[in-house]
Design goal:
By secondary structure, the chain is α+β, with helices and mostly antiparallel strands. It has seven helices and eight strands. Strand 2, helix 3 and strand 3 form a beta-alpha-beta unit. Helix 6 runs antiparallel to helix 7. It is globular and about 75 Å long.
């Protein structure tokens, strides 16, 4: 015969175990959230430090005059030359390479907080997805390109630049700004600096697409492959996208596909930003 009260004691034990497990789960979640918050704060501090290293204080009279944003009405002329400026006066790559010699470029995006080094680790395309510019594990990772698919001098027909879609608005979260028609129309310039050149890209499309790997999906060695990415833009409604109000001409897409090197900025669950440059600076 079972002892009186043994059933109650059993139920009490179960509830105690459940309570302990719940507390442990809360602690683990709390530690994880706290770690992410700390990492985000550290990342902001690191971003500021890298910006100061990249742009040392100079005599204003020796600094190149800032480049005006191209007139949107002229943005559809792919024969226009990109703006040029002495790279040494803009980004100090010697100083940056003392911090990390895998910094291959610097990117700025008009009207956003995007102002970061671009990194590339030979032999490990995913490294900077989970590591920051210091090589430390970080939720925000870094802005990077994949060396298995793209050259670090941005000479390829299409270069894909990756960055995280951070909730605090950092990294490539700012790409969401281009979901707004007015913002899209008023901000059309991406500048990429390398140790030897400055490339000014004009943004011509922003639209949602799947997470397919763009460098695997299209064969850019053929004219058909180069055209395919723009055909995809048309098929996805870029020519007339009611949600964002983005409109570009089919003739412009064709001209870009035929003539100009391009770059796309990608982030998870965000718009794909396409831009072109008419050549090297």
């Amino acid at each position: 015969m079972a002892k009186r009260g043994s059933g109650k004691n059993g139920k009490k034990t179960v509830w105690t175990v459940l309570a302990v497990v719940s507390v442990l789960i809360l602690i683990v979640c709390g530690v994880s959230i706290a770690r992410q918050v700390i990492q985000i704060q550290q990342q902001r501090q690191l971003d500021g430090e890298m910006s100061q290293i990249a742009r040392p204080s100079q005599d204003p009279s020796a600094t190149a005059a800032p480049t005006a944003t191209p007139d949107p009405s002229a943005a559809q002329d792919p024969s226009a030359s990109p703006t040029t400026a002495p790279v040494a006066q803009e980004i100090d790559f010697d100083a940056l390479h003392e911090e990390n010699d895998e910094i291959v470029a610097w990117i700025t995006l008009d009207g956003t907080v995007i102002d970061y080094p671009i990194l590339c680790r030979p032999g490990d395309d995913a490294y900077y997805h989970t590591h920051n510019v210091k090589g430390q594990e970080a939720v925000a990772g870094a802005i990077y390109i994949q060396g298995s698919y793209n050259s670090t001098d941005f000479s390829d027909f299409h270069t894909v630049i990756y960055g995280h879609n951070m909730r605090d608005g950092s990294m490539f979260a700012a790409l969401h700004k281009f979901e707004d028609e007015d913002f899209f129309n008023e901000h059309d310039t991406v500048v990429i600096y390398t140790p030897t050149q400055r490339l000014t890209y004009t943004i011509f499309a922003a639209y949602p697409r799947d997470d397919a790997h763009l460098m695997r999906k299209f064969d850019y060695s053929s004219a058909e492959g180069r055209q395919a990415i723009y055909d995809g833009a048309i098929q996805n409604g870029v020519l007339d996208l009611p949600k964002w109000g983005v409109t570009i001409s089919a003739d412009f897409v064709q001209q870009v596909a035929d003539q100009d090197p391009t770059a796309s900025l990608r982030t998870y669950n965000g718009p794909l930003l396409l831009a072109y440059t008419a050549g090297d600076a």
